[in-house]
Amino acid sequence: MASKSKKNTDAARLQTSDSLKEKLERLAKEIGALTAADTNSPTTSAAKPRRVPGRFKGALVVGPQFFEPLTDDELKEFAAE
Prior knowledge:
Layout: H1 2-39, H2 72-78
């Protein structure tokens, strides 16, 4: 009797592995389609402009008032309530 159940189990495993194989193949095709669609999107790395170091040099100027101590009113604005 043990041999009969073993044969049934082997047949069930074959059917399961075939269905899993089919599902994996289908998912691989879907992923391939998504990847192909993603490469045509405008947000790919090829569409990004190249970084230029120092492009904004001199755009932000810090005046001497930046280094002065904060007033009591300014300190109260930063304090947690």
